Amino acid sequence: MLTTRSPVAGGQVGFPPMTPLAAASLSGLLGLAAGSFANVAIDRVPQRESVARPGSRCPSCGAPVAWHDNVPVVGWLLARGRCRSCRAPISPRYPLVELAMGLLWFLLTLRLITAGLGWAVPAYLALALICLVLAVIDARTRLLPNRITYPAFPALLGLLLVASVGLGDLGRLARGLLAAAAVGAFFLLLALISPRGMGLGDVKLAPTLGLALGWLSWGTVAVGVFAGFLLGGLAGVGAILLLGLTRKSLLPFGPWLVAGALLGVLAGADVAAWYAHALTGS
């Protein structure tokens, strides 16, 4: 149970303990706001624009977005999905990204706190933000920008270092670094063997995902990496059957890579334990 209770002395007011569900709900609400920032990054990073200035604006006419239309999800609904200035339609991608971020932050917070890993919540919320932004950018442009993949690793490393110190378990960080090296080397080897099948952006992102997965467990690494390839393979088969693409068609792998990693974080330990039990029968 996560607690925000501070010692009560000298007339100070103590706060009641916060249950995992309450903490996750709060995190989910904050995730909606983080999703709004994610949309800004999705639009501007590929264009090499600042994510801080200017403020949000209509993608069609460039008119500034009023504060009340910037409220996550609600603003888009109140404006009926259109710019108030030029009446051009605004993509439903914006509220969908906000909802996805809120859901991810809720699930990750609930998962980590119930596992006794509350110190790691900031690191994995940051991972979700990075993953969602990169997934959408890659789906739109087939690029994983260096402006995100390069700083992602040191940022996550710093947050996981704090978590490891807070938990008194630096072994987790050591395992995470080993996993980062192993996953990074694996993806680099795949890119050298099949340059058309594995982009350098995926290679640059792989150590960050390996670090996040390895900090949790080796089983999480295996499940997260395998899930990424499984999802990518299923997407490829679906594109061939439904869209008429050929086996030589290039599809972005980044969205499936990060989806597999997030699935690994959320369920990797349970899946790995189930698989080990099935193998050993114990």
Question: Which terms would index this structure?
Answer:
282 residues, mainly alpha, 2 domains, 67% helix, disordered N terminus
How would you describe this structure to a colleague?
The chain is mainly α. The chain has 2 domains: 18-114, no CATH class; 125-282, no CATH class. The chain has helices at residues 20-44, 74-78, 93-114, 121-141, 146-167, 170-193, 200-216, 218-243, 254-280. Helix 7 (200-216) packs across helix 8 (218-243). The two termini are 30 Å apart. The model is unreliable at 1-11 (pLDDT under 50).
What is this entry, summarized?
By secondary structure, this protein is mainly alpha-helical.
Helices and strands in order:
Elements: H1 20-44, H2 74-78, H3 93-114, H4 121-141, H5 146-167, H6 170-193, H7 200-216, H8 218-243, H9 254-280
Helix pairs in contact: 1-3, 1-4, 3-4, 4-5, 4-9, 5-6, 5-7, 6-7, 7-8, 7-9, 8-9
Order of helices and strands: HHHHHHHHH
The percent of residues in helical segments reads 55-70%
How many helices does DSSP assign? 9
**Gyration radius, rounded:** 21 Å
Number of domains: 2
> Got a strand count?
0
Structural class: mainly alpha
**Rounded average pLDDT:** 89
Strand share of the residues? under 5%
**Quaternary organisation of the protein chains:** single chain
The major sheet is characterized as: none
Low-confidence stretches: 1-11
